[in-house]
From TrEMBL, chain B:
This is RNA polymerase subunit sigma-24. Residues 13-76 form the RNA polymerase sigma-70 region domain. GO terms for biological process: DNA-templated transcription initiation. The keyword Transcription applies. Residues 176-276 form the DUF6596 domain. Keywords: Sigma factor, Transcription, Transcription regulation. It comes from the Bacteria. It comes from Acrocarpospora macrocephala.
Length: 114, 409
């Protein structure tokens, strides 16, 4: 099964992190990527730019409304994602636990049967 | 319909339903399809066993019939429209018997930590315990619709999220087994929660939890914590008839009429503890404490020194502040109220809102003759207590203290 690991968290520490701190976290993600690769589980993943750079497009009654900022103005924002292949939820949860992020939401990807 | 006609199929239902369902679920990888096909098979059984006589091996007959019904259903396409993803099933070796027992897989799936606790409880009673949705709804004082929705939602999550249908292995197993035990114990403690429902319903729920405990012990005979949980529940439940007075009020352990205890059940509980030996985990240790109480002929025969030591062990295992509180109570019995009081000293940070901390202090202060301090603590406890029976008890204890000077006049 495919699962999306959604990395949620407070962006502030990251936004304010110095070069050393960033280096350290990127290294952790590097190791996580190696784990996924060694299990043939990596199916993609990206870091997202800070939510202050987001634009939200809402459509209602044929009108389009653009707003500056993310969909939900909460402290916890989506900061990135990994798409992984796992044999079941237990394996996906194992990856989520190994993932260097304080909050990881594990969502199964809907797979259409032929 | 004669009673005998219901008898065969009904007995087969009691004995085989959960095991057959677990097996069919592994084969079909679809819990709904397994449940419906097995239902079909039982419907045929009710109809046919009376006419043609009961088959020599009812379980095998039901299994074959259910498999055929599943094929029928799949062929008719009756399931295609609402089909959830297939369950992830390991091809693990099923036990060597005629009809392998897959209930352990079912138990681990129903108790998976990715499910919300109410869902775990409902699924476990339904699919491991074999209760109907209606029975579970009645035990938890909710409507059948609510309970059905809860079960459906949990089943959907199992299929959609890919919760595997398997017994966890290796390093994963101990924590997951603790999870299964926790669900069963929660069902048991729910039965003893003071929230309504009446004696009958609560005793029934406790008995169901004990039934699940027996099932689990049958499936994992060697595990000391499985035996410990079963012993703990059995010993507690053996006291049920002495726990409440004529008006439904709570009767505390020292005041209980011990002739009302079910001594045969106590024997069963004690036997479970003695057989398990080995590494005593939290359940076995709690069972050992319950065993000390159950073996005391009179309240004053209780071996409080042993109980204090066991609570010390339990505190080491769990790090729980509530356990410390219980250890303090036991120590007060063994060595006097001052020793107990001292053990409560650093608990305020851990239990800031728990009424039992000031209530326990009040009782110990009272025994030390410090009425004034005891009253203050009763006041604190009354401000925190949540349920009526406990409030009434605290009020009566406090008022006894208030009456002392009046009688002195």
């Amino acid at each position: 099964m495919k699962y999306m690991l959604l990395l949620w968290g407070d962006e502030k520490p990251w936004a304010e992190a110095g070069p050393e701190e960033r280096e350290r976290l990127y290294a952790e993600h590097g190791r996580f990527n190696e784990l996924l690769a060694s299990r043939d589980a990596a199916r993609g993943g990206e870091e997202l730019a800070l939510s202050s750079s987001a634009t939200t497009v809402r459509k209602r009654d044929g009108e389009t409304l653009l707003t500056d900022g993310p969909f939900a103005e909460t402290v916890e924002q989506l900061g990135g994602f990994y798409l992984v292949e796992a044999k079941d939820l237990d394996e996906a949860l194992e990856f989520a636990k190994a993932c260097p992020s304080d909050v990881v939401e594990v969502r199964p990807v809907v797979e259409y049967q032929g | 319909m004669t009673p005998a006609r219901m008898g065969g199929a009904e007995r087969a239902y009691q004995e085989h339903w959960a095991r057959l369902l677990a097996l069919l679920t592994a084969e079909l990888r679809d819990l709904d399809l397994a449940e419906e096909s097995l239902q079909d098979a039982f419907a045929v059984a009710v109809d046919r066993w009376d006419r043609d006589g009961e088959p020599r091996n009812p379980a095998a007959w039901l299994l074959v019939t259910a498999r055929r019904k599943a094929v029928d259903r799949l062929r008719r396409g009756a399931v295609a429209a609402r089909r959830l993803p297939l369950l992830v099933v390991d091809d693990g070796p099923s036990s060597g018997s005629d009809i392998p027992d897959d209930r352990l897989r079912m138990a681990f799936t129903c108790c998976h930590p990715a499910l919300a606790m109410p869902g775990r409880v409902a699924l476990t009673l339904r699919y491991v315990g074999g209760l109907t949705t209606r029975q579970i709804a009645r035990l938890f004082l909710v409507t059948e619709t609510t309970m059905a929705a809860r079960i459906t939602r949990a089943k959907k999550k199992i299929a959609q999220a890919g919760i595997p249908y398997r017994v966890p292995s290796g390093a994963e197993l101990p924590a997951r087994l603790d999870g299964v035990l926790a669900v069963i114990y929660l069902i048991f403690t729910e039965a003893y929660a003071p929230a309504g429902g009446g004696r009958l319903v609560r005793d029934e729920l406790a008995a169901e939890a004990i039934g699940l405990g027996h099932t689990l012990r049958e499936l994992i005979p060697g595990d000391p914590e499985v035996a410990g949980l079963l012993a703990l529940m059995t010993l507690h439940h053996a006291r049920r008839d002495a726990r409440t007075g004529p008006r439904g009020e709570l009767v505390r352990l020292p005041d209980q009429d011990r002739s009302l205890w079910h001594h045969d059940e106590i024997e069963t509980g004690l036997g479970l503890i003695h057989k398990s030996g080995a590494r005593p985990g939290p359940y076995l240790t709690q069972a050992a404490i319950a065993a000390e109480h159950a073996s005391a002929v009179r309240a004053e025969d209780t071996d409080w020194r042993s109980i204090t030591l066991l609570y010390g062990e339990l505190e080491r295992l769990t790090g729980s502040a509530v356990v410390r509180l219980n250890r303090a109570v036991a120590l007060a019995e063994a060595e006097g109220p001052a020793a107990g009081l001292a053990l409560l000293d650093d608990l305020d940070a851990a239990l800031p809102y728990h009424h039992l901390l000031p209530a326990t202090r009040a009782e110990l202060l009272r025994r030390l003759g410090r009425a004034e301090d005891a009253l203050t603590q009763y006041g604190r406890a009354l401000a925190l207590v949540g349920n009526d029976a406990e409030r009434a008890f605290l009020l009566s204890r406090r008022d006894e203290l208030l009456e002392v000077p009046r009688t002195g006049k």
